[in-house]
Amino acid sequence: MAKLLIASGIATITFGVFATASPTFASAxxxxxxxxxxxxxxxxxxxxxxxxxxxxxxxxSGGGDPDQVGFKMADGTFKTLPEIRALLLTQKAAVLxxxxxxxxxxxxxxxxxxxxxxxxxxxxxxxxxxxxxxxMTHIEIGEILAGKPFGGDGALIPHFREQLLGALGLAHDRxxxxxxxxxxxxxxxxxx
Length: 192
Hints:
Layout: H1 2-18, H2 23-61, E1 70-72, E2 78-80, H3 81-124, H4 134-137, H5 141-145, H6 156-167, H7 176-182, H8 184-188
Antiparallel strand pairs: 1-2
Helix pairs in contact: 1-3, 2-3
């Protein structure tokens, strides 16, 4: 059994360095990136739209008509505040569509690689990955790209690694060596 676990660990390490994720896990990775970009867009567009809404409300509360006040645009044309608001909303929707399309492409492009890794993992573990909990033997692209080439916190290798560090009395150590053991990419390249 110990030889099988070691062989499984070596397979995880070997395949983990070159692997990508299944549609579910790739989707989670890609969705996180999409959420990040959507958040950035909202952080920039939201306040601008709110400011325009406040300007329209102030004009109306003072008895003015926002449709009668024009602002010169960079192209030399004039637009009213409601037209500028509509333009921003249209541009925001277009960017959101681009972000969503990129997220869908991300998931679709990662799938063929994961299928090959899943087959390799089944062969390398002798089918053990089919009976163990998926998080123990599955290799996720999101974890690899996040700097955890041996899998996420629930994977078999990190579990054994933490047990070994605990047995050595290093479970709570945050020095370079233990950081390198836990997260080699970020230990070497801390700003990635």
